[in-house]
Design brief:
By secondary structure, the protein is of the alpha+beta class. The protein is 46% helix and 18% strand. The chain has 11 helices and 10 strands. It binds fe (ii) ion (FE2).
């Protein structure tokens, strides 16, 4: 009978689990970035420069040859060369080396900024350690004075290098840090807010229990006026809440209708027991006295304003849909919704309970009574909901279900 609700604690736990999964994914992103940069940094690049082919100059890492004025000495052509490595790539490069084909018979006279070597016709240089890293948009040089048998342009220079991606400097790393910070902040906020909500919910539930127990006690006091009415107010409250739920009202309104149901007959405390428990038919005067319980109840509850609509349910639960009820002879939807719901719940409980003047009425009789009075005594839409509850086995409620019922 009691629907399982997702508590805010479960909701917060679900959110925390989702944030933790999100953070794990971000951490996996960091690991992926780390592996990617390590892989890229280990990769060796090689570029050949034939200076007469323009397309090769589009490579972001470029080698320029700065050639000095040459001279002839002892039948050899001597010249100063500086090899300038330009880095226009988006990351620094490191561990660059050059190899340069030269004619036979060359020799190195002097050199700088690197370890130069000449083996047969291959000149190569490994830059000094301080010179091997080239930052973005910067250059490094290494030079030598080379003698060759006759003047000849140097061509076919090969540069080998590695890129150096410093992963904390990458855009992806900054995005991941932002995502991670967002996740951690969300987690902290969720935990803090969750702790507050849990405390608030505990306090709220504690107050709700106090209110529920207090109003159920009042309902018991009302029902002791008539031993045949024992449990009547609680059952009317339960049916009213079920109807409100079936009609699509929100949880707050369902709770409100339940409390009003508990109090709907509060005015009976002012009606003599001799009339309420009279086994036979009431006289016209006695009936007029009984009718006063709605007005008296409304007056008693005048100061009880915390339950919105309480007065409506108490004062108008004996109005009839066709306008022939009391207190005011309201008709149709002029009768407040609280009054119309309680009227159906009240009549159903009266028919499905034993009274001092009759036994419990049969299932078929009750269904028939509800159907034939839909639109005259009762709101037809609410009757439809009540019939669905009866046919669905939700009504009547047993004594055990009443004991277990929690709002
Ligand atoms: Fe009543």
């Amino acid at each position: 009978m009691k629907r399982k609700k997702t508590s805010s604690k479960e909701l917060i736990q679900n959110i925390i689990v989702q944030i933790v999964v999100y953070l794990l994914l971000v951490v996996a992103g960091f690991a992926g970035l780390l592996f990617y940069t390590a892989y890229r940094n280990a990769e060796s690049h090689e570029v050949l420069f034939n200076y007469n082919i323009d397309t090769e100059q589009s490579n972001p890492v470029f080698v320029k040859i700065e050639k000095g004025e040459g001279w002839i000495s002892e039948d050899m052509f001597g010249c100063q060369y500086e090899f300038v490595v330009e880095n226009n790539y988006k990351y620094p490069i490191s561990k660059w080396t050059l190899t340069i084909p030269v004619p036979e018979g060359c020799y190195i006279d002097s050199d700088w900024e690197g370890d130069w070597s000449l083996e047969d016709t291959v000149l190569s240089v490994v830059p000094f350690e301080t010179n091997e890293d080239v930052e973005v948009k910067s250059t490094r040089k290494a030079g030598l004075v080379l003698y060759m048998p006759e003047e000849q342009d140097l061509n076919g220079v090969i540069i080998r290098y590695r890129v150096h991606i410093d992963y904390p400097e990458t855009v992806m790393f900054k995005i991941l840090v932002a995502l991670f910070s967002f996740g951690v902040a969300s987690l902290i906020i969720t935990i803090l807010v969750g702790a507050h909500i849990n405390r608030f919910e505990r306090e709220h539930n504690s107050y709700k229990t106090v209110v529920n127990q207090a109003l159920r006690t009042i309902a018991n006091i009302i029902d002791t006026k008539d031993e045949y009415a024992r449990g009547h107010s609680l059952r009317v409250a339960i049916y009213s809440k079920m109807l409100a739920e079936k009609m699509g009202m929100n949880e707050f309104d369902q709770e409100r209708i339940y409390y009003i149901g508990l109090l709907h007959d509060v005015g009976k405390v002012g009606i003599p027991n001799s009339i309420l428990t009279k086994p036979g038919r009431l006289t016209v005067d006695e009936y007029e006295i009984v009718k006063r319980h709605t007005q008296m109840g409304a007056q008693l509850m005048e100061g009880f304003t915390t339950i919105k609509g309480a007065e409506n349910g108490i004062k108008y639960h004996h109005e009839r849909y066709d306008g022939t009820g009391y207190n005011e002879g309201l008709k149709g939807e002029e009768i407040p919704i609280e009054g119309r719901i309680i009227a159906v719940a009240d009549a159903y409980d009266a028919m499905s309970s034993k009274r001092c003047y009759r036994d419990i009425l049969s299932y078929d009789y009750i269904l028939n009574e509800l159907k034939i009075n839909a639109g005259t005594q009762f709101d037809p839409n609410i009757v439809k909901c009540m019939i669905e509850l009866i046919e669905g086995g939700f009504a009547p409620v047993s004594a055990a279900e009443m004991m277990e019922f929690e709002i």
